[in-house]
Amino acid sequence: MAVLPIRTLPDPVLRQKTKKVSSIDKSVKKLIADMRETMHAEPGRVGLAAPQVGVSLCVTVIGLPEEEDIILINGKIVKRKGKRLVNEGCLSIPGYVGELYRAESVTAKGLDIKGKEIRIKAEGLLAQALEHEIDHLNGFLYIDHLESPEALRKIQPDDVTI
Question: In the predicted model, is pLDDT for residue 161 greater than 90?
Fold first, then answer.
């Protein structure tokens, strides 16, 4: 396992729609292991999508405090409910946080590391993390959801990011 470098804007990989994973082979499992290690390497990291480490594959990992890591392959949001105002940051846009709307709850589906279909019903931070990371898989960043430039502000380096 290895801690991978995080890609930041304006790296073009962050704006590309990812390719579906057709087979969960050794290389995909190694990518997931490296992504998990990268995500846990610094406090405050909640999720990571493959494009953030330079790989245009449909793979995300999410690690909430006190919870088991979620691995979602070929993930997509299939249902959103409600709307709430959140502050959100991103490892790929260091030094900034924005105020935007995310769903109160979401349902996502995809595959786990064994290739089994899974559905995740989530609220709160997990719902936000799923939306954020799945956005990465489609070439979107949280700044694309800001209602105005004033919704983005500079932060201290050790603040929490998704």
Answer: no
> Quick one: fold of 12-154?
Peptide Deformylase (3.90.45)
Element (H, E) at 36: helix 26-40
What is the DSSP-derived secondary structure letter of residue 69?
-
3-state DSSP of 85-140: EEEEECCCCCCEEEEEEECCEEEEEEECCCCCEEEEEEEHHHHHHHHHHHHHHCCC
Q: Which residues are catalytic?
A: 133
Q: What angle do CA 99, 105, 108 make, to 5 degrees?
A: 110
Average pLDDT of the chain to the nearest whole number? 94
Mean pLDDT of 32-57: 94
**Residues 3 and 38: beta-carbon distance below 8 Å:** yes
